[in-house]
Amino acid sequence: MEKRYFLFLLLLLFIPRMTVGQDFPSNFTTVNPGESLNDVVVKAADLTPSPQQLAWQRMEFIAFAHFGINTFTDKEWGDGTESPSVFDPAEFDAGQWVRTFRDAGMKMLIIVAKHHDGFCYWPSKYTDHSVKKSPWKKGKGDVVGDLVAACHEYGLKVGIYLSPWDRHEKSYGDSPAYNKFFMNQLKELLTNYGEITEVWFDGACGEGPNGKKQEYDWSSYYQLIRELQPNALIFGMGPDIRWVGTETGYARETEWSVVPVKVSNINNITANSPHPVDKVFITGDMTDEDLGSDEKIANAQALLWYPAEADVSIRPGWFYHENQNSQVKTPEQLVDIYFSSVGRNSVLLLNIPPDKRGLIRDEDISSLMGMRKILNQTFAKNIAGEALLTYMNPFSEKPNYVMTNNNLYWISKNQSDTSIIMMDLPNMSIFDVVMLQESMKDGQRIKKFRLESWDGQQWIKFTEGTTIGYKRLLRFPPVKSKQIRLVIEESRSAPTLVTFNLYKLPAGISIESQ
Predict the structure, then answer these.
(1) Does pTM top 0.90 for this prediction?
(2) Per-residue burial over 422-449, b = 16 or more CB atoms within 10 Å of its CB, e = otherwise
(3) Mean pLDDT of all residues in 9-15
């Protein structure tokens, strides 16, 4: 039999899927009082992402671009008193931004439409504190519109960041009035610029010009988004994508996509809805080191597929500051962040702030392209591409052959915590990177694993990990071997695997950890 990685012989043993709940989509379930830990764990193992969440995760690497009033005042947070007259990016080129992001391998741009200072980068009809009162293009410009057009031209998805905290708007703090104002602006952005893939909300809620804080009507915001952009995902202060919990770009070593969520009244959860928790979802602190372990989900009210987005800026600040031109992260630092975000079951959101000209700086472009070069060289060749894989269940007498690709994949024969996949390479090979991926269509299940190589006499462990999820990337000192095995030590249910690849970092590359 020909020893190929994609082996024709396949024993694909499907496990019947549990029904999470007839009234709920596959990414959400409630937990009944008194349910055993085992029952809750099985429910968690059976949750899967929505089609939109899966498509979002597959983008892997996306862009942020903080640009605006703060770029010209050299601040991070404006106070809302800035004059529109300071905004005048004489060389603004949306195409230059988006070509840079595309060439770096990014798949979407989150456009900052309004930051906390309240200045709008589109000509909103609900305020004069916008580009229409600036000297840029004699008040006829539209940053959001230009960037959307460039994204369409160069094949990037579009996301929108609209800060709920508005330090300029006088109605802020008069909750009903401001909520109406905010939803009017949100409606403008969601109806005038085509398809929006992600709506980005942070939790900033400070005082407005009147010294009052605002009570945001999140439920109504969600309803408006679902109505106008039914395929859009809501980040952060919404129930579709969660903030990873830092601004470093680093995800957790153990990053579960299924986590417990709090709801205001479990009896008010909307059945037969694609978004059953929108009216009862309670935004909360998702910064703990442990969010989704068995211990954490044991006493949950409800469980939600709630994947992590890891945000970080290429510079110390989020907006451009000239004195940070020498502090742009190096390609090696960016690669380390990539391995620690995309490679830890998260999406990487990297901010690249344009300068006062309205252009991405050469320093930033150089680092981005250097990062892309290292990643392209690393993943150009899968060393395991011609390997023979066999599956060894501790309770079976003989191995089964397996094949892994996007349509046909390996799934364990039973619910055993332990499983072993053996890899036999055609030749002795040297590698220092492994890529593992579970089948997201069957959920996230693997809790603990290790990788070992055969040295001719015994199996030697060379790396280990906990969760895998959509993608796990691990680096380690170079290993030379012909035989490798993946030992799955613990799993919430029958483990699955769609990718088991080996790679080699380019010669001379030393990855810098933060």
Answers:
(1) yes
(2) bbebeeebebbbbbbbbbbebbbbbbbb
(3) 31
